[in-house]
Amino acid sequence: MAYDTGNIQDDRDEESMQLLKNIADVEIDDFPSHIIE
Length: 37
Known about the structure:
The protein has 37 residues and is mainly α. The protein is built from two helices and no strands.
């Protein structure tokens, strides 16, 4: 795939968001599920 600078930036942002989601999922897993529900 060909990238321009905009696409590269978007990919970095999406990767960062995915990392944040993964971290959030781990933190959520530390809580009993009934608190979230």
